[in-house]
Prior knowledge:
The protein is of the alpha/beta class and about 240 residues long.
Amino acid sequence: MRLDLNCDLGEGEPRARTRALMRWITSANIACGGHAGDARSMRMCVRLAKEFKVNVGAHPGPWSRTDRGRGAVKMTPDELELLLLQQVSALEMIARSEGVRLHHLKLHGALYHAVEVDVKLARRYALVVARHWPKAVVYAFSQGQVLPAVGQVGLRGFAEGFADRAYQADGRLVPRAEPGAILGSVAAAVARLKDVRAGRGIRTIEGERLRLRIDTLCVHSDSPDALRLVRALSESIR
């Protein structure tokens, strides 16, 4: 399988930036009203994805705009189910009205990480997707609770790696508030891609190597030099 390149979009970035990023990626994770996004931005992103033949994915996040969905999350399985039904359904309806099918789901920010470490949340997440969006792919952390839960209910999952974030030796991302959490250059990200494709794994902040399954590589739209980064990665993948 060719490596997928995904990007979180519709999070308040200018339309010109959304369009420029969409040119180089293969999958778009579209904010659907929780941490960011509204009906107008969702429709704009769906139309651009259709124009550039990019996979449309729902990017549900915590109901928290002040911290862009990156603050601590405490959520019950029932609350997670309701959040998914509200946000993913909203994007799916807009996509369907534009003649586009929902390709995948990827949780955002603190919600992404909360579900990865809580087996009850991961299982409910997988069950809700299997019940309502059984043809959708679930994009999830390569080391966590979600991919096993997804497999147990017969869904397809893509193991996700991050092109622009530093990793710790335990496989988790370096917290954003800590020094070195964001990779500092396009060259470093391209080097990571080459390592992944060559089977050398990902170099951690401690200098060790993580051997991770990676099906899709993420670039955040608000990362420094995000446009240069996605273009360089896209050209390296081809």
